[in-house]
UniProtKB/TrEMBL annotation:
Signal peptide: none
GO MF annotation: an example: ATP binding
Ranges for domain AMP-dependent synthetase/ligase: 42-404
CDD domains noted in UniProt: 4CL (cd05904)
Protein name, entry field: 4-coumarate--CoA ligase-like 2
UniProt similarity note: Belongs to the ATP-dependent AMP-binding enzyme family.
Annotated keywords: ATP-binding, Ligase, Magnesium, Membrane, Nucleotide-binding, Transmembrane, Transmembrane helix
Length: 544
């Protein structure tokens, strides 16, 4: 087998191989990701800093807290294979919960705080958690009909006011509980066991639980080690429920001894103040955040001292060459490291490492360590080579175990040889750089979140004055894309654009809201009834 050293392409197999040094992975023995992370050597002292309160969590305090919480969870009956849900904004305690749950061989599932009660109820119905961690402000989003035990992540003194919630304790109390001398019997955890269940719209449209194993997360830690190294300082503002943030701030960077300054949510002035006060060298952002920094560069540079910044890592959605060039021009001395990954690949597929690689604007970087890729014609199945565009298939130690309780979706996404079909159209150039060209799948990327058109269409069709509907993406400089709806009204209806947008807004998260409505006599479809979205996208583009 001969592999071209420049591109990583092998002619005999039509497979692209990573040009990075292979990762060092532990043998496939009984090992959970929490134990692996806690055993990694580093010289870091402070693990987390709350940017709002100033509270600090040292590494010794972190690991003692993880052990104490795990012990209390075991006492509450949480066992290997049980699912525990966390519904919380970013917090220095979010990783404590996640690592504690995974150390037991139980499964952590993360819910987005901005999701509606209905969306959270659907996730709970699908994942069947035995326990929930949440805050006073969010407990009301849990289903009232569900007798789910709840642990509060903030002050529990007002717990009695939650008459319909089954409060069984507080996280702070768990972390202060002394460990008993009689140690709990720890169940053996395999690296192939599921560690995390992160919900994604996936490559087939509707929201599904992505099963990430302990081995997936251990491989992720090693990929971060190769890319970033030990003991740096960063700010976390991306929601930890999202794979991009969960992968870095709740797992991998802890193993490397990084100090992570945590903001509860993204707010530009708070982020910039945190950079000025805490002096991080590194930021992780999604494209809309970086665009906002580009647009406000003059005012930002005059008001804030950002001189500590050296690296900005961007993921979650493609970033245009133009935006990258403007950012580098307006924030001198800061390099932009782009990357590409999916929830289904534990956030890792391709990335940039060095300053030289950042100059390849428009690229997502080189294949990450131990990643293999194929470029496949989506119509014929023919496998392409260098500089040819097709569907991007990947195989690596970070590819998910599958979709939770959904064998059909798993089989249509991962083939028998372990190749995951990303649903993205890409090409790999003669030097091995990955370029994302388009989305073969029909998902809309809004502010780094995935929006399934089918979900919004089903919601619209439930309206008695809507005869047919189609949802497509509309480009936006800040958000990347927004959902737009084409609507066929029922005979005699005068339903307005604002009424439709309001109808949807009441039932979905902010990032799923319809931002534009156009009325048509009929929705274009193929003979089998499938919506011809590309025709609608062309129609929309011609009017912009």
């Amino acid at each position: 087998m001969t592999i071209d050293r420049k591109s990583g392409f092998c002619d005999s197999t039509s497979v692209f191989h990573s040009k990075r040094e292979p990762m060092s992975l532990p043998p496939n023995q009984h090992l959970d990701v929490t134990t692996f992370i806690s055993s990694q050597p580093h010289r870091g002292e402070t693990a987390f800093v709350d940017a709002v309160t100033g509270r600090r969590l040292g590494f010794s305090e972190l690991w003692l807290g993880v052990e104490r919480v795990a012990s209390r969870l075991h006492a509450l009956g949480v066992r290997k294979g049980d699912v525990v849900i966390i519904l919380s904004p970013n917090s220095i305690l979010f990783p404590v919960v996640s690592l504690s749950v995974m150390s037991l061989g139980a499964v952590i599932t993360t819910a987005n705080p901005i999701n509606t009660p209905g969306e959270i109820s659907n996730q709970i119905e699908d994942s069947r958690p035995v326990l929930a961690f949440t805050t006073r402000n969010l407990v009301s989003k849990l289903p009232s009909s569900n007798d789910l035990p709840v642990v509060l992540m903030d002050d529990s003194r007002a717990a009695s006011s939650f008459s319909r919630a089954k409060i069984v304790g507080s996280l702070e109390a768990m972390m202060e509980t002394e460990l008993s001398e009689s140690s709990r019997a720890k169940q053996r955890v395999s690296q192939d066991d599921t560690a995390a269940l992160l919900y994604s719209s996936g490559t087939t449209g509707t929201s599904k639980g992505v099963m990430l194993t302990h081995r997936n997360l251990i491989a992720l830690v090693q990929a971060y080690r190769a890319r970033f190294g030990l003991e740096k300082r960063t700010v976390c503002t991306i929601p930890m429920c999202h794979v991009f943030s969960f992968a870095g701030f709740a797992t991998s960077l802890i193993a490397l001894g990084w100090t992570i300054v945590v903001l509860p949510k993204f707010e530009m002035n708070q982020l910039l103040s945190a950079v000025e006060i805490h002096r991080p060298s590194h930021l992780s952002l999604v494209p809309p955040m970086l665009v906002a920094m580009v647009n406000g560069a003059r005012e930002i540079n005059s008001k804030y001292d950002l001189s500590s910044l050296r690296t900005v890592v961007v993921g979650g959605a493609p970033l245009s060459r133009e935006v990258t060039e403007k950012f580098v021009e307006r924030y001198s001395g800061v390099r932009v490291l782009q990357g590409y990954g999916l929830t289904e690949t534990t956030a890792v597929v391709a990335s940039m490492f060095s300053e030289e690689e950042t100059e390849r604007y428009g690229s997502s970087g080189l294949l990450a360590p131990d990643v293999e890729a194929k470029i496949v014609d989506p119509d014929t199945g023919r496998v392409f080579g260098v500089d040819q565009t097709g569907e991007f298939w990947v195989r690596s130690p970070t590819v998910m175990k599958g979709y939770y309780n959904n064998e059909e979706a798993t089989a249509s996404t991962i083939d028998s040889e372990g190749w995951l079909m990303t649903g993205d159209l890409c090409y790999i150039d003669s030097e091995g750089f990955v370029f994302v060209v388009d989305r073969l799948k029909e998902l809309i990327k809004c502010n780094g979140y995935q929006v399934a058109p089918a979900e919004l269409e089903a919601l619209l069709l439930a309206h008695r004055e809507i005869a047919d509907a189609a949802v497509i993406p509309i480009p936006d400089m800040k958000a990347g894309q927004y959902p737009m709806a084409y609507i066929v009204r029922t005979a005699g209806s005068n339903l307005s654009e604002s009424e439709i947008m309001s109808f949807v807004a009441k039932q979905v998260s902010p990032y799923k809201r319809i931002r534009k409505v156009t009325f048509l006599a009929s929705i274009p479809k193929n003979p089998s009834g499938k919506i011809l979205r590309r025709e609608l996208i062309k129609l929309t583009t011609s009017k912009l």
